[in-house]
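Hi P.,

Sorry for the delay on this. The queue was packed all week, but I finally got your sequence through. Input first:
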Amino acid sequence: MKNSLLKVGIIGLGLIGASLLKRLSQKKYEIFCYSKSSYKKAKKYSKFASDDINIIKGCDIVFVCSKISETLNILDELNKILDKNTIVVDVASVKEKKYKKYKFEFILSHPMAGSEKSGFNAADENLFVGAKWLVEKENKILEKIIKDTGAISLKFDMKKHNLACAQISHLPAILSFLLYDCASNDSKQIASSGFRDTTRLAMTNSDLVFSMFKNNEENILKTFDLLTKKLNRLKNLSDNERIKLFEAIAQNRAKMYDKNGKNIFKI
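Then the structure:
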């Protein structure tokens, strides 16, 4: 009898790839994993795990969860071993301005989920639950998998992606590092939950933060310039104007998430 299980490939077993593996291993999929460093750990969840990328051959859909800097090279390798019937999904937090034309169906996507932790051991099977998963176009197979991760699929204009991520992910991470670095040792000694929460991202893997900055520097600096303008404007406001500004921002922020922390913001 022919095996009818959907064959899912996962390339890269860091936080995102390993979390995807753990979640989908509980569903009805046949999973194939490729990783140079963590493939042995993946064998607990899939018998098809290897440090040879050819393990991915024959998959129906492949998720590229490698480092941002490695994505294009991985796509070139996949173009040599996959056929036109395979769907390849990129999940990187930075998108290239222009991609090659590949023989497989290529879909840009980005699960809006993460952690300051990294690596296979930081993986969480519930990482995607309730999160928005951005996709550039609709695809039934991808939609089913996203649903099975517990995420919510959202069609998104990928031309706006890098700037959006600079504003809500990349710059906040960098500022978290700098905020921690601005505080003196005396200040850190008496710091409580406010400082703890606003500097949580300063524990993010430094290679990842550097990669974000290097690959999305234009948009990060553009967002930083906007922040600087707002700070300069704040300096020139009267006390009454400052109070009104803080109140308005606080009210809008309070409406953005529900009591469970789920983003309910709508345009």
